[in-house]
Amino acid sequence: MSISWKTTYILFLSLFLLTGLGSCISERQLAYCFSTKQQDPNILGSIQLIPKQKKQTISFTATLYSASMIAIELHGLEGSNPRESGYYAALWQGTQIEDLHRKKAIQSIDLDSKEGSFVFELDQGINNIDYIIGLGINRKDSTSFCSTLIIPKNQARYIPISTDNAFSSSVEVVQLGTDSLIIAYETPAFNLPRDNNNWIAIFSGRFTAHTFKGVNLLKKQRINSNLNQGMLAINHIEGGLVPNQMYTVVYGMGGESSEATEWIIAATEFRIPNPD
User: Fold this and answer.
1) Entry pTM
2) Which of 33, 79, 83, 136 has the fewest C-beta atoms lying within 10 Å of its C-beta?
3) What are the tens digits of pLDDT across the range 83-117?
């Protein structure tokens, strides 16, 4: 009797959960392993399970106080400085960010620490329709939006907008090799990674304020696709990935220099497991 691929996937998932490996591998990592197994039944044994990752994203919450005043709480990356990195917020009508020239409002974020609050003041108040706030970095670039929040029609005042309406860009390691890895990423729907000079980089050590300055950079690679989400392989990492050592993978936007790493929007830390 043949077994469908759906049944096989359920059995595969159950095995990971029952053996306790579910705490070390995400659904996206599991799906990658499963798809690889489907392509070559003999390859799964050579795939290293990814250790638990410490992920960081840029997110924000918002509360509508009046038609022209929105209170925003920012939650940034470790060691980040929103003012120096040119963080800003923009507002559009509808549920999708668009070209910046079609914005309804824009405001720089004048904070010098990763977390803080500010009031987004609008010259023209919002009406009883959907709006979306986009949070960007490097205002000179004008295309580096990393997080969004939809203000739904009939949103009550003085009550924080549901985080179900929020999105933050993310990056995640889904496969490890001896000197290579595969990274999955997700950015806002409007983003065109290739045209907007998006990139992924790997660093030795943990994510710190020095990461923004390129300290311990091992390799940086531009994304050659304009899909806002996908996967990227980084090969031939100098020195290889050393067991029991910490590494950081980041997703960044902009920067003309091949070594520039100022505008990071997401990160993930992980330790290379010791061989059995």
Assistant:
1) 0.82
2) 83
3) 998 899 999 999 998 888 889 999 999 999 999 99
pLDDT class for 45, splitting at 50, 70, 90? very low
Strands (E), the chain: 54-57, 59-66, 69-75, 88-93, 105-108, 115-121, 131-136, 145-151, 166-168, 170-176, 181-186, 198-204, 217-222, 229-234, 246-253, 264-271
* Token reading at 104: 């309804």
Q: In what order do the strands lie in the sheet with 229-234?
A: 170-176, 181-186, 229-234
Contact 173, 270 (CB under 8 A): yes
* CA 148 – CA 160 distance, rounded (Å): 15
Q: Residue 14: pLDDT band by 50, 70, 90 thresholds?
A: very low
Strand partners, 149: 133, 166
* Number of Cβ atoms within 10 Å of the Cβ of 18: 9
Compute CA distances 237 → 29, 80, 176, 266, whole Å.
Answer: 21, 26, 11, 20
Nearest to 54 by CA among 171, 164, 169, 167: 171
pLDDT digits (tens, 9 = 90+) for 251-272: 999 876 667 788 999 999 999 9
